[in-house]
Design a protein that fits this description.
single chain, alpha/beta, Rossmann fold, 3 domains, 7-stranded mixed beta sheet, 12 helices, 28% helix, 19% strand, globular, binds zinc ion
Length: 422
């Protein structure tokens, strides 16, 4: 159990007061301090403390969905300390009410809409893409997404209702009109555009412009009132090289390694990055093996018109001398450890940080990201001339907000648990 969190006392009081205030205002926050002898209550305290200090990592102590904490007590009934702060945060602005739901989702009570999450009262759950931190898990979810996203979600265990929307096709209800715009992040990824009587909103999900070549491209509306944007690479040290250059680096690494008698291994996660690397290598038509978890997603790409080349699933005994693609986590678990001469390329936006080289002992760092870089992010915000921007999924909200302010754009931080995905 962790004990050493340091919080300035006045800050603690101020935040406590504001939390109590929000409890009194919309009765969504319940906490009564006491009964801290329960493990779960302690972890709830830590979560609360983590919330105060802004250290979202520590929120992992409590795994709440429907208010059940990590030790499986019903927080509401048995612990009386804490109801998930993340499900009860409300963002108010002059245009529409936005609430957080679950880990990463949003709920719009006036519209009956959820984005990238489950909410019991949502009639429409729009899903931007099939990455784990965006995909709702609940069986009762009425999901609306592109056909590629729904196919990928199904492969990853989604069992709710599936409703296909085409890009640029308008979907209307009494309260809103929704349109999906291609987000350029992974296959099927979409930005969700909502037009309402109160105003318009664009939710980016994860996005990339210029788009990844293993996607349907990128397109956006011309102007929006509210913009909710991810800012994964929210520092001006992140400026990506042109995709053609990165593609050449990837091909050169594969060819030169094989020429020198080495087996090239590309590190990239299973959905998106792996297929993007394969798509870039496809013109070489060299035999390639991909980790099994990524392999089972590849035919969805092929079915949706993204060619991935001459590939098969990873077989340990047969992998020597082939191009290999795997998430880095598999490497430490013995992936290709039977091959004596390997060269490893780490493909990620984070690869632009030299420090990663020592952490990963990769032979080559290729800064291929499936998120947009910092400068594209600021440019995109400027072009949409929104009345308000919510910045989310970022380790650096202050920096992004500072640059937006210089552009004369009003912004707030929407604090979701941040994961260093790429
Ligand atoms: Zn993603
Ligand atoms: Zn994400």
């Amino acid at each position: 159990m962790e004990k050493n969190f340091k919080i300035p006392f006045t800050f603690y009081l101020a935040r406590t007061f504001s939390l109590l205030h929000s409890f009194l205002v919309d009765r969504t926050l319940v906490f009564a301090l006491g009964s801290s002898d329960h493990i779960c209550c302690r972890s709830a305290h830590f979560s609360l403390a983590a919330y105060f200090t802004g250290n979202s990592r520590k929120q992992r102590h409590i795994e709440t969905e429907n208010s059940v904490c990590s030790c499986k007590h019903d927080v509401d009934r048995n612990c009386s300390v804490f109801i998930d702060l993340r499900t009860s945060r409300t963002f108010r602005n002059s245009i529409m009410i936005i609430k957080k739901t679950g880990y990463h989702g949003l709920y719009f009570p006036e519209l009956g809409v959820s984005l990238d999450g489950y909410h019991p009262e949502a009639d429409y759950a729009f899903v931007s893409h099939a990455h784990a931190d965006h995909m709702p898990r609940n069986r009762n979810t009425k999901a609306y997404a592109t056909s590629a996203t729904l196919d990928l979600m199904e492969r990853r265990g989604f069992r709710g209702e599936k409703n296909v929307l085409k890009f640029h096709e308008q979907f209307e209800s009494d309260q809103f009109r929704a349109t999906l715009y291609p987000a350029g992040h992974i296959l099927g990824s979409a930005m969700i555009y909502l037009e309402t009587e109160q105003g318009t909103l664009l939710y980016t999900g994860d996005y990339k412009t210029p788009p990844s070549p293993a996607t349907e491209g990128f397109d956006a509306p011309e102007q929006v009132d509210l913009l909710i944007t991810e800012a994964t690479f929210g520092l001006p040290i992140y400026r990506w090289e042109p995709l053609e250059k990165l593609k050449k680096d990837i091909q050169d690494f594969a060819v030169s390694s094989l020429d020198d008698g080495y087996t090239p291994i590309f590190l990239g996660y299973n959905l998106g990055k792996a297929q993007e690397i394969m798509h870039m290598l496809a013109p070489l038509n060299l035999p390639l093996m991909i980790h099994g978890a990524g392999f089972k997603l590849c035919d969805v790409y092929e079915n949706h018109g993204i060619h991935l080349g001459n590939y098969s699933t990873y077989v340990r005994e047969e992998c020597e001398g082939k191009i290999l693609v795997t998430p880095s986590s598999a490497l430490s678990k013995g992936f290709a450890s039977n091959v004596s001469k390997t060269r490893v390329a780490y493909c990620s936006g984070w690869a632009s940080n030299e420090s990663r080289r020592t952490q990963l002992t990769a032979d080559k760092l290729i800064p291929l990201s499936d998120h947009l870089d910092f400068f594209e992010l600021i440019r995109f915000c400027r072009e949409l001339s929104p009345k308000k921007v919510y910045v989310t999924h970022t380790p650096n909200p202050d920096v992004v907000q500072h640059y937006l302010e210089k552009e004369g754009i009003d912004s707030s931080f929407m604090n979701f648990e941040y994961e260093a995905e790429d």
